[in-house]
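Risk register update: the risk that structure generation would not scale has been downgraded. Supporting records follow, first protein first.
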Amino acid sequence: MMKTMKKLPDAEFDIMKVVWANNPPITTNIIMQELGNEREWRAQTVISLMLRLVERGFLRTEKNGKERTYFPLISKEDYLKFETGDFIERYHGNSFTSLVATLYDGNKLCHKGVEIIVHWC
């Protein structure tokens, strides 16, 4: 994992979610089909965002004829670990207890309709 990893802006994170959900290599056409058309992005916008992800070290790129292909350099799991750690550090002072206390409500936490009973020690 990169030591200098930084939080991605929402648009770049959305592109990375598409990258992680597909088998490499990824093309701008794949991004346009799964995200760009919905967002009403132009192809040049997607290309610019992809190149920014290359500059940030999240993707590497290869030129194959006229088409550029992209490969993830950072796994979804590594990025989510980074984001979660950053969130806990910034908002909860690295305290798991603080995080759980924020989620705690009447001795119950819910996850997809499943009730989880929390017992404080």
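Supporting record for the second protein:
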Amino acid sequence: MIDIIPETDEEIANIRQVITDAFDQPQEAQLVDKIRNSENFIPELSLMAVDDGKVLGHILFSRIFIEASQQSLPALALAPLAVMPQRQHQGIGTRLVQVGLSKCRELDYAIVVVVGYPHYYQRFGFQTASKFGLMSSLSVPDEAFMVLELKRSALAHISGTVHYPAYFQEV
């Protein structure tokens, strides 16, 4: 039975290894460490998939902002989502996203953005962000930059730039 639970200090090294293995490089794990040590970290939204005491996957949602015409709106960045390579394609990532989005709603967040594979994230309701008049401060393909309204019409009459913290540029 796979449990989705908040990360613990004892599991940080294991989480780092899962992320490094999933991406076959250390940059995403280093990103998580930088987020964890920033004011944008939300402990309740750093979730791990655990089976029989072993970390199989991890998802992180952190604070970012949308700079709109006359206002700055809070939002969340989903980054990264990682599952151990030998346990991918078994629904673990899906469970992490579903439970994570549910937690985001519980904590009263309205907007989540992600840079990822459209065919994967669209099934959770993510749509191309440019359809909402949103641009990314990162240099990413339009179809890979997506947004999800956790609250109905959260992006109504909003357009602007999603500003990622500088440490996202390093990935």
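The mean pLDDT is 96. On this basis the risk owner (M.S.) recommends closing the item.
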